[in-house]
Amino acid sequence: MTFSMRPTYHDARLAGLVDKLRAYLDGELADYERERGITPATRLTRADLEPVWQRSRALGFYGIHLPEEHGGQNLTYTELAALKEEIGASGRVLGHSVLGDMGGPLRAGDILRHATEHQLNTYFLPVVRGERACCFSLTETDAGSDVHSMRTSAVRDGDDYLLSGHKVFSSAGPFADFAIVVARMAETGEQVGDKPQFSAFLVDLDSPGCRVTDGATPMSGEHIESDIILDNCRVPASNLLGEEGEGMRIALGRVTVNRLLHCPTALGATRRALDLTLNRTRTRTVAGGRPLLALQAIQHKVADMATEFYAARSMTYAALAALDRGEDVRTEAFMCKLFVAESAFRILDEAVQIHGKEGLTQGNEIEFLFRKIRMFRILTGTSEIQRNGIAHGLASLG
User: Fold this and answer.
1) What residue stretches are annotated with the Acyl-CoA dehydrogenase/oxidase N-terminal domain (predicted)?
2) How far apart are CA 271 and CA 346, in angstroms?
3) How many angstroms separate the CA atoms of 34 and 261, rounded?
4) Could you report the per-residue pLDDT of 37-69, keeping only the tens digit for each?
5) In a designed cystine with 115, which of 73, 119, 136, 140 is the match (CB 3.0 to 4.6 A)?
6) Structural domain count, the chain
């Protein structure tokens, strides 16, 4: 994989998809955002998002990774990653809604294969069609990296379950119709040995006993998070995903793939920052009328930035290729998440430095990208958690 600020692809299908996606992102979607005055700080509504879901679906992008029977094109992980990278590199605020990351089929992820026919028809297929939206609710205030310490509970009550607890950081929650909620079983027989049992449920967010409130605003300034508060919320047994006690396996079973697929989005944002920085160094002049890029100190900075980006991108796509071959890439996924997060942060830090005061100014794209990338060192597992996973994987090699 050679270095490029605008990758080209030898595979005709992927090249065509990338060209079509770039045209949509830079043209129609850019116009839509401009007409509505949408910025990263905009409080997005269903009225803002549904037209993007529907248009992306009509263009073939929404749920494109899915099998053909669900209206997708059965993309490989590498192909999907290439599209996610382009979205990250586009600078589009609503890019997260084009493939279905924000409340759409990518948010549901691999969970679709655990759904019953009723659950598919009532919940997931409408999501695929852009008619409904979902969020994933696992995290709690004191149950982040240690998800097994969650306190949200589920009690069987006849043909239903009663759920109680407080979930936080439910991305897409402000405009979702239902949540995939993981809860601790809190009735007799809940444990096997000393281990608590967890189950996953589809919870309609307009159900009695369920409240959706504004979540904490992350440092990126985006209003995409919500808290989900459950107080004896009655959920029909038909909304149990899989079997009782399988909730954590269902929830975490998607983590390795998701961890790896978050990397291309971060790489795209980093590519965007590098491109903006190169443009800055070519057009900004210093004493004597020379461009910044004429200074050796600046040349060394951008050389290091490009080299780190190339390394991070190369290892990510190598791991994706292995995943497409059916190989176990758990350790590599930890490595990619760690290296992409840390190298992207270093690149963005240098980008701010090169932009000077403008890079510190709210409303400047580099300043926003810096905040966004800083979050990636924590989201979807902190860098420390990734190191734990790498060390565990190395220990198992014997």
Assistant:
1) 18-131
2) 13
3) 28
4) 999 999 999 999 999 999 999 999 999 999 998
5) 119
6) 3
